[in-house]
Design a protein that fits this description.
The protein has about 230 residues and is of the alpha/beta class. It is about 25% helix and about 25% strand. The chain has a seven-stranded mixed sheet with strand order 8-9-10-11-12-13-14. Strands 1-2-3-6-7 form a five-stranded mixed sheet. A two-stranded antiparallel ribbon has the order 4-5. It is globular and about 45 Å long. About 40% of the residues are buried.
Length: about 230
């Protein structure tokens, strides 16, 4: 699963990540198509909130070198931008990793004049805040949307394998930038979701990509929200 989430706050229309576009094969890259099917014109997107700069999250931003979201501002963490958009860092990367730097630079380039750092205090707009969850990448970020008593945490890549990582959150991935930090961020996100009864959305959670987290001793349980009234 490789999800992206459109959130309409009433003031602005946000898109959290953009899927993989054409970068990861024909079974993915349908985010723009699905936005249209949901009645959303891509030109209506006011801002794209990137959780991190991996290709399955930014790939839908461009098509043949042209921007897909012509009116959107782009938000990304400073730590991820300094790493993935740096020619100097790319030059020092192992040969098998260099393509990921090139993909990131190519995707961001058409939006360079609209690229914005995340605010230091985390608040992007009323009811929209960035939540630092580093580890998977240096600047991996979740986004918290709040409206009165309702809250939604789009937590990016906190979970890659729901069957394993809710019951064993210490399990990490070979491509986590800092595995210890990634595991700690996962525990922090789980606790945040469980303590505050947040609706959570994840890029690699199975359909519908929305649910709730329950703490069960030292483990956690995930409850998919299949028939959410919030969709």
């Amino acid at each position: 699963h490789c999800n992206a989430f459109a959130v309409n706050t009433g003031d602005k229309l946000y898109l959290v990540d953009t899927g993989s576009g054409v970068l990861m094969g024909s079974s993915l890259g349908r985010a723009v198509e699905n936005l249209v099917l949901a009645g959303i014109n891509v030109d209506q997107i006011d801002a794209i909130l990137l959780t991190h700069l991996h290709p399955d999250h930014f790939g839908g931003m461009t098509m043949e070198g042209r921007p897909v979201f012509k009116n959107a501002e782009i938000y990304v963490s400073e730590a991820d931008a300094k790493f993935w958009l740096s020619p100097e860092v790319a030059d020092k990367a192992p040969p098998e990793m260099k393509q990921f730097f090139t993909m990131a630079m190519d995707a961001i380039k058409p939006y360079a004049h609209r690229l914005k750092p995340l605010p230091k205090n985390g608040e992007i707009a009323r009811g929209v805040s960035a939540v630092a969850l580093p580890g998977h990448t240096a600047g991996h970020t979740g986004y918290l949307f709040a409206s009165e008593k309702e809250q939604l945490l789009v937590w990016g890549d906190i979970i890659h394998n729901a069957a394993l990582q809710f019951t064993r959150p210490e399990i990490t991935l070979a491509f986590d930038t800092d595995r210890t930090q990634a595991a700690a961020a996962r525990m922090r996100a789980f606790d945040m979701a469980a303590n505050h009864k947040l609706l959570v959305a994840g890029m690699h959670l199975p359909f519908p990509g929305l649910g709730f987290v329950e703490r069960n001793g030292t483990q956690y349980r995930y409850h998919p929200d299949f028939w959410s009234t919030k969709l």
